[in-house]
Amino acid sequence: MPQIITDYDLVVADGPAGLSEVTRSLFLVSDLALLPCNPSGLDLEAVRDAIRAVRQAQKIRNGPPRAFLVPNRIEPNQLLSRELLDAAGSLGLPQLPAIRKRAALADCYGQGTVVWRMPGTADIKEEFSKFFTQVRHYEKEIAH
Prior knowledge:
Layout: H1 2-7, H2 21-29, E1 32-37, H3 41-61, E2 66-71, H4 79-88, H5 103-111, H6 122-143
């Protein structure tokens, strides 16, 4: 990892679920941490654990990573989704735009493609475009 982060300006690493040593190690070298959270009590507890690990890394490093909550698989009319969005403010992290639950997102792997190439996904493309624009904004802010 040290060689990779010196060779590239932007590295995206997806850590395994839970707080494995790999995930904790990523927090120790990352500038930006995106913490996805699905609308369930178990996921909310897991993200609270991840936030504690991020805070530990921030204390060790006296700064980064800057962390953001990413509400994931959100269904606006579902009670659990609304509860997650309501609880998000109490987690002490800024929140990025929510990613809604979409069948196309789950289906693209089976189709052997990415969601951008699937027909009828213009709204998903727009949602992700807004999401990544916001991520890029924060990444540039961190770089300066």
